[in-house]
Design a protein that fits this description.
Layout: E1 6-12, H1 16-27, E2 32-35, E3 48-50, E4 53-55, H2 70-78, E5 82-85, E6 88-91, H3 96-102, E7 108-109, E8 114-120, E9 123-128, E10 133-142, H4 146-153, H5 160-170, E11 173-183, E12 191-193, E13 199-204, E14 217-223, H6 225-230, H7 236-251, E15 255-258, E16 262-269, E17 279-281, E18 286-288, H8 298-315
Parallel strand pairs: 1-2, 1-10, 2-7, 10-18
Antiparallel strand pairs: 3-4, 5-6, 8-9, 9-10, 11-14, 11-15, 11-16, 12-13, 13-14, 17-18
Length: about 325
Amino acid sequence: MSDIPQARFAVIGAGIAGSTFAYYAQLETHPCIVLDKSRGTGGRAGSKRLPHGSVDLGASLISFSDESISDLREHLLQENIIARWQSAYVGVPRMSAITRFLLQDIPLYTDTKIHHLERRQDQWLLRDERYQAVCLADTLIIAAPATQAAMLLATIPNVNSLLQHANQAISQTRPQWALWVTTSKTQSSALMTCNHPILETIIKDSDKPGRHTDEFDTWVIQATSQWSQDNIDTPKAEVLAHLIQAFEQEVGIAVLNTGEPHRWLLGRQAMALSSKPYLWDDTRKIGVIGDWLCQGDAEGAMLSAKHAFETISKAYPFDQV
């Protein structure tokens, strides 16, 4: 095993939670490895590239209203990674810029799906879906949606409490259909919360800092959780037609161009059931973080990560780990 990477922390998931945890670990000079099954960072705060730029199909903004992460907010503002928009903050020029910045100095392994977790003496051994050893770490952090966290925890003996929390949270996880469209330029509101059977939120993505175009407006349509659940297996062509029709009726302007509907199977967390913003097994040195443990939004993911790191770093003298 001497030929595989080793670190103090192995973080599974390069979304908002995993990136934030790794960032704080890096600030304290703790060696960290981040792994993600996707090609890039961001998770549900990822961005889709378009011929004319990009669009945020997942998390559209971060409130940064909790002062416990004001240090992170101010650092991101100073580095021009985020900008103020609609009484909140967005990544510039896209939401995924946040996670890329947080992980810029941290070893990142993408296209790496961790399938098996094994405790060997005082270290965790992570294996991929081909059962190949990927890395060793003193402490394991799972930063994934509840469903994926439960699948990973199920491979570990004697973590029933963590697994139970993840399984309970699964009942509160909801899908969401999302779609980007373009229209002619309009003075319509840039952020609309809808009282509609299909539409939950309409976001003028091209109104965000760093995304402006002179020729047209780019919008993101986010469907309600209930409609998305009812249409979870509906063909994309039908979903597209429903979303466009609803959007045109709500905004009153014709769609010029559109992408393919994106189905977030784990798109929304209806309720955070845990009494703490993170889970931690003191004996096995395994933590679980994510928005499903705190608030159910992007800020909650950051808070979950920071509180978890603070607890772990205070509880253990890492020079002895």
